[in-house]
Amino acid sequence: MLSIQKGVRGLAGMVTAPASKPHTQRALVTGALARSGTSTVTNAAWSRETRLLLAGLNQFGATSTVDGDRASITVDPDAASASPIRKVDVAGSAFTLRVLGVLAAVSGGTTHFRATRGMMNRPVAKHLGALTHQLGAVLSTYGTDSEYAISIKGRGRRCDQQATHVIDTVDSSQLVTALMLSAPFISEELRMRAATRRVVGAPYIALTREVLGALGVSTGLAHSAQHGWEWSAAAEPGGYPASAYQIATDFTSITYFAVVAAAGEAGKHEVVVKNFTLSGLESEDLFFRAIAKLGIGAVYDPDELTLRLRRTGYPSEPVVIDGSDVPTAVTSLAAIAAYSRGAVTVVNCGHVNNHKTRRVELIVETLARMGFDICEVRDHRGAVIGFHTEPLNGAPRGGIVIGDDGDHRILLPAMAAAVGASNPVGFSDLHSLIDSFPEFVEQLEALGAVVDRTQTSS
Ligand SMILES: O=C(O)C1=C[C@@H](OP(=O)(O)O)[C@@H](O)[C@H](O)C1
Ligand SMILES: C=C(OP(=O)(O)O)C(=O)O
């Protein structure tokens, strides 16, 4: 348990952010799926999720060494690429399960995965099962009180599939990414189609295409009235060329610093993120544009590699933001909106409720308990599609204890929001910090937050 409150010197200072988790994940996967040779990943983001992914890839036959923030992954073409002998632990990471799940489907034997029980409530195994079936594999699941077990009987590493794979994209973009990443073991001309009209998380599919493009894989995206969204990937059978990857800064971690800037005073406080490199994700750009509407300026200096975040003012009119393509930033946007002294509505982000927790509902509940004026927005059928905030009279009162729901995307923005509250906010469990930003508490202190660790137990 620790508590967070505003320090006397206000909210300003210099911080650093971790490297990008999605970029690191893709580099680790394509490095491990090289035909042969050693790939290096420099400035890798080490968190529980990326370490588990690398451990899983090693179980599929890659060999890796980690030295500080650098990983070297070696693929020996003579080593048997059999299925893992031991259970592969994916914990609460749907990305890891989806990507390694497709890899298991195109492997020779049966792979057993272990996930947290929370994974049972997410639309992961259902859609992964439908996809692996199309690949000629069989998925089965088994839930106990302590874990969720998923087994996939693979069909072997062949590159001869002619079919167009139909993928559910209404809940997550990650299956398209997962399938595309395994392209060298599926088809020389891999074809995919979205099962429905709606595709969530499209910027992350674009990121996958960008990573594959740099490896010489030509990918395509098309949309037609008859077929909806379609993707293709033409990869050389047998794997990717080994490569050297340099990982950019994690844009989602920046969103927590933007919450701190939102809690600061206009024209007075500035959060400077040093060693910042733009990730190029469309979500990053969309996020900066959204916070500009809420009175938060983000100025990037590519020579100094600094990003300066500060409150420039407050919106003078009601603001509506489309949250479709900023899935990881929705919970931070809620806190920034809640500090914006205006009426703000964020819509089209109900899919974020398919993530580690029902994120939209949980962030609304958490911020409301802190004293913000925020509520859910529902569609005509009653489904949550976003949230709405109203101006606050003064600072939120704080003075509560926030428990752990195991979701870093709730904990981190809530900690950042706590720095502007009138009373300290307690956090009883910090375990989920290690999923993406283990050093966050120290970074908050660097910005002037007062952290009381006297009751720390985790
Ligand atoms: O491919 C990726 O790296 C991700 C895709 C998105 O997932 P969804 O499409 O499931 O939202 C995003 O929210 C997640 O944090 C990372
Ligand atoms: C990508 C994330 O999670 P998942 O892979 O579990 O959807 C996340 O929480 O950042």
Automatic annotation (TrEMBL):
Name of the protein in question: 3-phosphoshikimate 1-carboxyvinyltransferase
Enzyme superclass (EC): transferase
Similarity section: Belongs to the EPSP synthase family.
Keyword Magnesium: no
Classification lineage: Bacteria, Bacillati, Actinomycetota, Actinomycetes, Kitasatosporales
Pathway: Metabolic intermediate biosynthesis; chorismate biosynthesis; chorismate from D-erythrose 4-phosphate and phosphoenolpyruvate: step 6/7
Catalysis: reaction(s): 3-phosphoshikimate + phosphoenolpyruvate = 5-O-(1-carboxyvinyl)-3-phosphoshikimate + phosphate
Alphabetized UniProt keyword annotations: Amino-acid biosynthesis, Aromatic amino acid biosynthesis, Transferase
Domain Enolpyruvate transferase intervals: 9-444
InterPro entries in the cross-refs: Enolpyruvate_Tfrase_dom, Enolpyruvate_Tfrase_sf, EPSP_synthase, RNA3'P_cycl/enolpyr_Trfase_a/b
EC number(s) recorded for this UniProt protein: 2.5.1.19
The keyword Transferase appears for this protein: yes
